[in-house]
Amino acid sequence: MADTGIIIGDDGLARPVWATSSELMQTYYDTEWGMPVRDEHGVFERISLEAFQSGLSWATILRKRENFRAAFAEFDPDAVAKFGDDDVVRLLGDAGIVRNRAKILATINNAQATLALREDGGLADFVWSFQPETTPQPRTIEDIPTQSAESVALSKALRKKGFRFVGPTTMFALMEAIGIVDTHLLGSHRRGASGVWQ
What we know:
Elements: E1 6-8, E2 14-16, H1 23-31, H2 40-53, H3 58-63, H4 65-71, H5 77-80, H6 85-92, H7 101-117, H8 123-128, H9 149-160, H10 168-177
Antiparallel strand pairs: 1-2
Helix pairs in contact: 2-7, 2-10, 9-10
């Protein structure tokens, strides 16, 4: 089924090519990607990791995920919001994460913006308020969009709230990852698994 971008695994299950590149990626695809994340902590972690992924492969970020969690106080926004200059120096010296000053500073900034958003109902509800009325129905990898009207709107809205590294493509990837849209290929065994879209 190479023409659709789907591969049938040894277990008989259909997955997109990217989900078969390693055991780590397959486990992520089978158990986490596209499943609803509706809590502040979970959404903050995903926004942070998507920002670090910008310009890199998701596999790189996934391999470093536990290192990121250790370095960023398990992505507790209350803790990260208090990070200062010493923490930035520490993070820039941490070979276990992506050592990009702009992305590190953006994560600290976004933690502070997350705390401020609590007055408006919180980060998770804010992000989920951009759920579209319909979700893509991709038959092939080429059918999957890289952004949408909703991801553009979410990007603009988050920027107005002070967030950084939240461009439309990054926000569409976030929406895919946390179940706001379902871009599982129609032939994939995970299509509809989130329960958000039937």
